[in-house]
Amino acid sequence: IKPLPDKSEKVRVPLRIPIRRLRWALQDGISDDPLPKLLNGQLIVRPLEVLLQAESPVLIVELPGVDVAKVDMTLLLLNMEQKVLQEQTLTTPGRGRNRWRFELARFADTLRHNSSPLLRFDLRLQGLPDAPGETQIPLMRLTQSLMVENITVTPIIQGEQVQVKINWTSARPLQNRFVRFWPLWQPWQAPIYRPIPDDARGEFIVPVDPAQPPLQPIKYRLELGISDPWSPPVRPRRPTFGTQNTLDVALVPPEHRLQILEQESKTHGKTFARTLEYAIIQQELNHQSAYQDALQWCYQHLDRATIPQMLTLVECIKKTGGAYAGRTLKALRLKLFAVQRIKKLLRAYQQEKISHRQFQAYLANMPDAKLLPVKTAILLLDVPDVQIDLPVIQRLIQH
Questions:
Q1: Total domains, the chain
Q2: Does residue 384 belong to any structural domain of this protein?
């Protein structure tokens, strides 16, 4: 202790105060970052294969500011049904003060021979101050990839009832699988989802479910996957052509589907949906004249379309290319931003009839702001998007 010559002088002394905050990190030899940088309180997500290939994976848990002699920590390995498959208890820290080390190699056999597609490491704590009883915290989630080969689909069509039999080969059966059907001839439609029973081994006949939308005699992109109940629900995205575990399959030949659409149009009249599907099939068959004629009809009858169907029409016109696409796309974007259609867009978004992704895709087609009707510009002021607001405000100032 040394007296200061000037009592008004400020003295700053560094203090290290431990904050009672649980942090953890995985040391698997992949990251070169030092441990203090790895430690955080966020859920770790890893593919199971990566963890099994690590030499000596260790899960580090740190909890400063507590009496470690009074705290018991147990690492639990759980499957999707929340069943404890294995556990490891540590009553005192391994190395370092207030720091526990869980050797994950001890769980390797259980991890390797479990059929659950999703596994989780949870930490159970006992003896925490101000927290009587047990506290359980998820630390790490492990995912297993569904790897299937030789996917085949056999249509079973009886009258208006459509079923399919799916066959595949897989080295390892997993639980919680699903099949999703993405309609390629009707891309504005939502995919059809069906769970696959856990006891299905290489074959599954998709049942008819009256409570779900039925399969139609059209072309689908079939996707096999695993559902994750521990992740927040999100709208799935259609996988691109050739993605692992997918197969494009037409349940009827395209020429036969065209005949069905033509007959339905003669019997019940043309609809936007039938004509747009007709155009998509004609484009697939490389019948450009019939394709452009159908697109022109859709362009002229845009008021009959839903928001997703309008977006599909935009994508179809883009695919045509050339001068026709340029002229038609420019005119279509002006029609999309007419006052009555922007009202329809905002209403559909507010009522959650379209996703945020579809909402943004529609707005991405905004023409030059100078060409916007003033009433449309006023409506767009309520859209929380800087890329929209700025040109809209400039348009109103100009007006």
A1: 4
A2: yes
